[in-house]
Amino acid sequence: MKRRSPTALKASQRNRRAFTLIELMVAIVIILILLGLLIPAIGAVRLRAQQSQVRAEISSLEAAITAFKADFGMDPPSGIVLHESGSATWSQRDKNLIRKLWPQFDFSLDKDINGDGDALDNDITLNAGECLVFFLGGVYEKTADGTFRVYGFSKNPAQPFLNPGSSVAALSATNSSRRGPYFEFDNSRFVDTDGDIAPEYLDSFPGQQKPYLYFSSYDGRGYRDSELPVLLGFKSVYREGSSAHGSTPGIPYKAKTYQIISPGADFQYGVGGNYDPDKNFPGPQPPTYLDDRTVEADNITNFVSGSLK
């Protein structure tokens, strides 16, 4: 085989020119531009997947509410004050709700609803998110590691709030005589945002800080303003009509059933109220500049497929 001379080899090496600094910089810029286009697209795909997961979970919550209604004849209430002491005085409204759910309920008996071993606690006031957990999950306890567990309701018609606690023996003895839980809660997503030892439930968005909201229309009798979590800034259930500030309140969505609301990926509910699917949510308006409805665009509910916008 004929070998190339050293002189010819050096000439060939000189002809293979290396990249110049400018060419390298151009290549890097092109790569950065492509990454700039790709990363938002990946983020959008991830967000859509997370939204789909939450929407599927809301559908599962709806199925759980349907199962609850099949057993008790009504959707879960979204506001109630429970009393553990048998000597406590119940409001007539709350007493009527309990009687409708459990006609033979014995109000004179002590009840350990929150599983702390003390049946003489102060009143247990359940708000919108807490009612969702309580009526779908049942009596509960806060365990030693700070998480909550739910145990359904006893089938004893006079004492549905019998709490088995975390004892394995107690649970084994009572599981066959209990109703619920109606929903398979992930214990790691229970929270207690108001510190009253009554759990609420977070959606599956990573890092979520605000729980699901739940509002009952009480089978079409009407949503109750007194059950709105005004401390969280949410002032109204969602209604049909123009979403512009100052618009006349319209007919509520799901007027005969209930609304379930996730705060979405930004962890903010907004203020609620009229919702027009064809319009953008308005920003804050003078003079207060407080009611910024743009944060509601990513809320996920049971009356719209996907997010609100």
UniProtKB/TrEMBL annotation:
InterPro entries: Bac_GSPG_pilin, N_methyl_site, Pilin-like. The chain crosses the membrane at residues 21-45. The keyword Transmembrane applies. It comes from Gimesia aquarii. The lineage of its organism: Bacteria, Pseudomonadati, Planctomycetota, Planctomycetia, Planctomycetales. One of its GO terms (biological process) is protein secretion by the type II secretion system. The keyword Isomerase does not apply. This is Type II secretion system protein G. Keywords: Membrane, Methylation, Transmembrane, Transmembrane helix. Pfam families: N_methyl. One of its GO terms (cellular component) is type II protein secretion system complex. It comes from the Bacteria.
